Amino acid sequence: MAQKPQEGTTDPSTVRNVVLVGHSGAGKTTLVEALLAATGTISRAGSVAEGTTVSDHDPAAVRQQRSVTLSCAPLVHDGVKVNLLDTPGYADFVGELRAGLRAADAALFVVSAADGVDESTVTLWEECAAIGMPRAVVITRLDHPRADYEQTLQDCQDAFGENVLPIYQPMLGDDGAEIAGLIGLVTLRVLDYSTGYPPREAEFEQAHLMPIKDDRDLLIEAIIAESEDEDLMETYVAGELISTATLVPDLEKAVARGTFYPVIPVCSATGVGLDALLDGLVNAAPTPMEHDLPVVTGVDGSPLPPLTCDPDGPLVAEVIRTTIDRHVGRVSLVRVFSGTLRPEQVVHASGHGLEERGHPDHDADERIAHVYSPLGAQLREVGLCVAGDICAITESGSAETGDTLSGKEQPLLMEPWSMPEPLLPIAVVARSRSDEDALAKNLAQLVAGDPTLRLDRNPDTRQLVLWCMGESHAEVVLDRLRAGGVELGTEPVA
User: Fold this and answer.
1) What are the tens digits of pLDDT across the range 3-52?
2) In terms of C-beta density within 10 A (0-12 exposed, 13-18 middle, 19 or more buried), how is residue 230 classed?
3) Is 299:407 a contact under the CB 8 Å cutoff?
4) How far is Cα of residue 446 from the mean position of the Cα atoms in its chain?
5) What is the DSSP letter of 93?
6) What is the separation of C-alpha 107 from the centre of its chain, rounded to a whole number of angstroms?
7) Which of 160, 182, 260, 391 could form a disulfide with 254 if both were Cys (CB 3.0 to 4.6 A apart)?
């Protein structure tokens, strides 16, 4: 049944925050569209090529037909709100990716069946492993002419290591060419998508067992090993049948702990696997209360006890992304880690630790005028945002990406997430004196929203130098400046 995101979720246990990562072209944004359409959040899936997707609402993304910013797209499945965080696939936009990792409690690695795994995806997997983030793998684009599911699965297992195992096996249609169904390796459910989405559940037959037996045995052994249940292991070794009701909860616990990494085949175009993925996100992804939270100190750096995800606790939230909308002004995407954020609430906005990057330390009390549930560029007003959830706020005068929002009476500071140094300098020049003020204003707004940017003024040459992560990053920044009506040019850095 079609469901729309709940307005003002009050229970953190009914929230899942999942970041989608993978190389450009893997199908992350298309997958988000398919999931939104499958749950009735949107009436039909948009197109990246046509610039009609929820995630790619940034004008620069539409013009360049690629994701260039972090975007939040919430949906509801089985009464659970899932905040999908779509990230760019280009390495130049690592700042958006790191912000998505900060806001999420689990990562969904999206791998194209036509292209396999690249080095940057492997590096990101290792980064998630270092912080203990639970992960799952989705193999997409099963309908592509070059798609090779079995080889891509093997590539994922070779690249990502142990306990990367499929929990569904693709099933070919009557023509023997296209994937038209899935078989659950634990549940033995047969899902038939030959007539479209949602699937028809077919009867499991003995003929289905032989093609999946080896993968099923490996999966069951891995689940039992992760359960650390000696009695269960003895039962299995003795050859006794272990029920699905026993295996599934152990599988879900292992995924939430970040010790087992399920692989799910999905085709966004035909709907294959969408329901299996949604069930996995709801049942196996950790709740915000199960995931370790960032370190919090006093504004002066004094140590404090570890943070807990409690709606009744002290307010601690973080600005994950800041953009400037020409209609509503500054829009900040916020993850609430503790406490509850409400409209008309006075908060303390604090940003420390990035002064060497051109972001001076700053502290200010601000009134939160409105709290919204974001769906791409759409903002729907809500009455509150509790610990564990993600919202958007507007009219925040000074808050920048990475800033901590806390109670006015109890100012706190979250440890900043790690950012790489920008390596590409671009000297920007206003075309005329009348453009100089507009250039300075727009540059300040861009730098406030993107910690990977640094703005310097050379004291000797008086050049205004913008440091970017790479050519793609610089291209988007200059595109945004020009779209804002600034006449500018570039020149060699002296």
Assistant:
1) 444 456 889 999 999 999 999 899 999 999 999 999 999 999 988 888 88
2) exposed
3) no
4) 21
5) G
6) 7
7) 260
Radius of gyration of the chain (CA): 24
Biggest CA–CA distance in the chain, Å, is 83
| Phi-psi region at 79: left, alpha or beta (left = phi > 0; alpha = psi -120 to 50) | left
* Amino acid letter, residue 483: A
Strand-pairing partners, residue 81, are 15, 76
> Pairing state of beta strands 464-468 and 316-325?
unpaired
- Share in percent of the chain as helix, strand, coil (round to 5): 30, 30, 40
Token pair for 470: 């790479």
User: CA end-to-end span of the chain, whole Å?
Assistant: 62
The C-alpha atoms of residue 20 and residue 30 are separated, in whole angstroms, by 11
Helix (H, G, I), strand (E, B) or coil at 265: strand
- Beta-strand runs (E) in 175-222: 179-184, 190-192, 200-202
| Pick from 416, 410, 390, 417: nearest CA to 309 | 390
- Rounded to whole angstroms, the Cα distance separating 184 from 279 reads 12
Residue (of 44, 280, 60) closest to 185 by Cα position:
280
Q: Is the pLDDT of residue 396 over 90?
A: no
- What is residue 46's DSSP assignment? -
Nearest to 452 by CA among 475, 424, 427: 424
Distance CA 30, CA 254 (A): 28
Which pLDDT tens digit goes with each residue over 379-394? 999 999 999 999 999 8
- φ and ψ of 408, to 5 deg: -60, -40
Provide the token pair at 401.
Answer: 């990406």
Distances (CA, A) of 409 to 75, 350, 362, 395, 431: 34, 13, 17, 21, 47
Residue 298 has pLDDT above 50, yes or no: yes
Joined tokens for residue 229: 């249940």
Tokens coding 274:
């969408």
pLDDT in tens, 322-367: 887 777 778 999 999 999 999 999 999 998 766 666 667 888 999 9
Collapsing DSSP states into helix, strand and coil, what is residue 318?
strand
Looking only at the bridges linking them, the beta strands covering 200-202 and 261-265 are unpaired
Contacts of 251 (CB under 8 A, 6+ apart): 167, 186, 223, 260, 262, 284
Q: Rounded to 5 degrees, what are φ and ψ at 434?
A: -65, -20
Q: Is the pTM of this model over 0.90?
A: yes
The structure tokens 């929230």 sit at 15
Q: pLDDT class for 433, splitting at 50, 70, 90? A: confident
| Residue 63: predicted pLDDT | 62
Each residue's pLDDT tens digit, 60-112: 655 665 667 899 999 999 999 999 999 998 888 888 999 999 999 999 999 99
What confidence score (pLDDT) does residue 6 get?
A: 45
Q: Which is nearest to 348 in space by CA: 394, 399, 405? A: 405
